[in-house]
Amino acid sequence: MPDSAPELPSNPVPLPITGELDLHTFRPAEVGDLLGDYLAACAARGIRTVRIIHGKGTGALRERVHAWLRRSPLVESFALCDETAGSWGATRATLATGRHK
C-alpha cells in the first residue's frame, strides 16, 4: 500500500478571534491574507491589541510579518513582545482606530 500525503480540508477552518494569532500551522505564503483578514476581524470586534506568534526560528517569518505590518493601514504600531509574552518569537500589534477596511 503506497504512502499518500494527508488530505487537505476542502473548507477553510474558522479561527477564533481572540486577539492572539499563532502562525506555526500556516505556510509563509498564507501570512499576508491571513494577517489582513484576522486583524480586520479583531478591529471589527473592538480588539485593539493583537499578539502574533511567529516563532523564533531563522527570523524569516518574523521579517515577513513585520514587513506586512509596516505597510498595513490597520496597524498603528507594533513591537516584539517582552520575555513573558514570547520575546522575539512573538509581536504585539496595536490596531489603528477608525481606519480599518
Would you mind describing this structure in some detail?
With 101 residues, this protein is α+β, with helices and mostly antiparallel strands. The chain has a single domain, classed as Ribosomal Protein S8, Chain: A, domain 1 (2-Layer Sandwich). 26% of the residues lie in helices and 20% in strands. It has a 4-stranded mixed β-sheet, with helices on one face. It is globular. The relative contact order is 0.19. The model has no long low-confidence stretch (mean pLDDT 85).
List strands and helices in order, with pairings.
Elements: E1 20-22, H1 31-44, E2 49-53, H2 60-71, E3 75-80, E4 90-95
Strand order of the largest sheet: 1-2-4-3
**Strand fraction:** 15-25%
Average predicted local confidence, pLDDT: 85
CATH topology type: Ribosomal Protein S8, Chain: A, domain 1
SS class:
alpha+beta
By CATH reckoning, the class would read Alpha Beta
Indicate the radius of gyration in whole angstroms: 15 Å
Shape: globular
Number of helices: 2
Helix content: 25-40%
Number of DSSP E strands: 4
How many domains make up the coordinates?
A: 1
Stretches with pLDDT under 50, minimum 5 residues: none
CATH architecture: 2-Layer Sandwich
Query: What sequence of helices (H) and strands (E) makes up the elements?
Result: EHEHEE
**For the terminal residues, how far apart are their CA atoms?**
50 Å
